[in-house]
Amino acid sequence: MHTVDFTPLYRSFIGFDHLANLMDAAARNEKQPAYPPYNIEVTGEDQYRITMAIAGFDENELSIETEHNTLLVRGQKADKTEGRRFLHQGIAERNFERKFQLSDYIKVTGAQMSHGLLHIELVREVPEALKPRKISINQQSTVKVEPQLLNEHLAQVSNA
Asked: Cα 54–55–60 angle (5° rounding)?
């Protein structure tokens, strides 16, 4: 496997260094943990849901945080194995930490647990200033300049 050099992106595109860093991090061959399993689904236009299988965890053993376009889900299992003897322990009750990179304007709107599944709801909220807007085309110019006022202004500028 060969690596891709993103250095030309840093020289050519101003303000896209975050994107280049994300691509560089994704290109690295870092092994991601497989536990806990999860799904990412589109539930509507600009709406998403992450579902994680976290059987055996209570709500107070979980933490969900967002910081700088990163969603971090942690599970800290309290040690309850004292006095218990297992012939076979197939249910994973281990701590975990799972990170998800979020796009700009993705916000976590809520989380709920049911039947051993943690559902995290996300929505993309693009600010009004960045949304496309329709510009109407008028037949008449909206700015009228009186020729006499323009000549007086030009005379004032040349005298100064």
From this structure: 70
